[in-house]
Specification:
This protein has about 500 residues and is of the alpha+beta class. The chain contains 10 helices and 13 strands. Helices cover about 50% and strands about 15% of the residues. Helix 5 runs antiparallel to helix 6 and helix 8 runs antiparallel to helix 10. The structure holds adenosine-5'-diphosphate (ADP).
Length: about 500
């Protein structure tokens, strides 16, 4: 089933609620009106009856005051004046001593007579007298404690019925009118209120991948629509940044691959230009192989990063003995450093186990140690250490309690972290470069880095691996005196 537009639904709801309110109000007004009208009829009948009864109690000579008709006319109006009253004797027969109206006698019910005999009045409504029902009051006329007559006064309910009909007709005409007016008002209001949404929809539709720098208007308003516009704009900003990153990434990747390809091509072309002896060919092939290996490494790195971006990287999970890992990487680093006269040592070690992918964690550590050796001049040192810490960001004491240094939240004693530090005495990293060194393809000194076979992806991969393990990586560095990289990984379980 097709869903109605918000505008139509708003209008329907609005009109529905108004209709219910009007019908309820109409019902209450009808009830009050009818109550008032009935009360008026009964009060009129009662006061007429009292006047007549008073007349009846006068001495015989004054029995028929000529102005009686006049009195009744005042109450009932000319058409009913002389019709609707009669005097009965206590047994219910017409009392011949009294003038009766010319029409049919009024109805006398046994119950009313019984009540009259006991001295109480009775109101009844009879429906067999013409088009409209008649309200009849049957009242005893008492003289010295005795019922001498029974007096009946009747009144047509025509007026009451006409008033009721008028009321109902007005209601029937006004309610739909009010609903139509309110409905169209609501429809217009809803359109006005929702117009910005339509405009936003159209604006959002115009913004394609090429126009991500555009923003929606109306974000400054402090209402629901302003919030919506702000949220969409924030999303656009994130998309823009992500798109820019992807573009930069592929541009940088092509550029990185182009350089070794150009070198390869040059070497091969030179080698082919004239015949050479086997030793020379061998040298060229070795150099080509080196270049190809470095390209293969680069492609591997790129693949890893793009898979991680797409969330498609497969991670092994298992218990990883970090102390073993650190030892292995330190040994490799030692061999690497020997050629450069950089010592790689282990300072401090604890047996710690984390859950994760051992191969990738090793890659992370290897990247850090390689960098340490790469950026440390001869005679320098790279030191590794592994220890247990209580927070992922370091510890700070605030108002007597240990809190996380970065988040200032209380440290959860049930979660512990393994901290691996790789500290070197190398060239260090300038302060302005520190926030950027984990970015893709970022190198403080591109020429030097490329010479050492780096494409600026190592630290980015290290960060991806640390974060995939729920951990984090940080750096501190003083140019000229060395750098310290710290990786913190959550421990598998609390270890005694
Ligand atoms: P690269 O492949 O160039 O080494 P990385 O992502 O590993 O790329 O490092 C990025 C940049 O950070 C490097 O180019 C280098 O300038 C700087 N860097 C990384 N580690 C160190 C270190 N231990 N000492 C000094 N500079 C470093």
């Amino acid at each position: 089933m097709k869903r109605l537009s918000i505008r139509a639904r708003l209008t329907l709801w609005y009109t529905g609620i108004l209709a219910t309110t009007l019908i309820l109000l109409g019902g209450v007004a009808y009830g009050l009106l009818m109550r008032g009208l009935w009360h008026d009829v009964d009060a009129t009948l009662e006061s007429v009856a009292k006047t007549l009864a008073q007349t009846a109690r006068r001495p015989a000579a004054e029995l028929f005051p000529s102005d009686l008709d006049e009195v009744l006319r005042r109450f009932f109006g000319p058409s009913l004046a002389d019709k609707f009253y009669q005097f009965l004797d206590p047994r219910g027969r017409l009392d011949p001593r009294w003038p009766q109206f010319r029409g049919e006698p009024l109805h006398v019910s046994p119950e009313a007579l019984r009540n009259a005999a006991q001295g109480t009045a009775t109101f009844e409504t009879v429906t067999d007298r013409g088009q409209y029902p008649v309200r009849i009051l049957t009242m005893p006329v008492m003289l010295r404690g005795q019922v001498v007559n029974v007096l009946q006064v009747g009144m047509s309910l025509e007026g009451l019925f006409m008033a009721r009909q008028h009321f109902l007709w007005s209601l029937a005409a006004l309610v739909p009118l009010a609903l139509v007016l309110a409905g169209s008002g609501g429809w217009l209001l809803a359109r006005r209120a929702l117009r910005p949404v339509d405009q936003m929809t159209m604006a959002a539709r115009r913004i394609g991948a090429e126009h991500l720098a555009q923003r929606l208007e109306g974000a400054e308003a402090d209402d629901e629509l302003g919030r919506l516009a702000r949220t969409l704009n924030e999303m656009l900003a994130r998309l823009e940044a992500a798109f820019a990153q992807v573009r930069r990434f592929s541009a940088d990747a092509s550029h990185e691959l182009k350089t070794p390809l150009t070198v390869l091509r040059g070497e091969i072309e030179v080698a082919l230009r004239s015949p050479r002896d086997p030793a020379e060919y061998r040298r060229v092939l070795e150099s080509v192989l080196e270049e190809v290996a470095s390209m293969a490494r680069l492609v591997d790195d790129l693949l890893l990063l793009s898979r991680a971006d797409a969330g498609a990287l497969r991670w092994e999970t298992g218990a990883v003995e970090l102390d073993r890992l650190v030892e292995e990487v330190a040994k490799e680093g030692e061999i690497l450093g020997r050629g450069k006269q950089v010592r790689v040592t282990i300072e401090g070690m604890e047996p710690l186990i984390v859950q994760g992918d051992g191969q990738r964690l090793k890659q992370l550590l290897r990247d850090l140690v390689d960098n340490g050796v790469k950026y440390t001049p001869a005679g320098g040192r790279v030191a590794l250490s592994l220890r247990r810490v209580e927070s992922s960001n370091g510890r700070k004491v605030a108002s007597g309690k240990p809190v996380d240094q970065l988040t200032s939240r209380p440290i959860d004693p049930s979660v512990e972290w393994a901290e691996i530090e790789v500290r070197d005495t190398g060239i260090g990293i300038p302060a302005e470069a520190l926030p950027r060194i984990f970015e893709r393809f970022y190198r403080v000194d591109p020429a030097r880095s490329r010479e050492a076979g780096g494409a600026g992806l190592g630290l980015c991969i290290a960060k991806t691996i640390a974060e995939a393990h729920g951990g984090r990586i940080e750096v501190q560095s003083t140019p000229g005196s060395g750098s310290a990289f710290t990786v913190r990984l959550p421990l598998a379980a609390r270890q005694a």
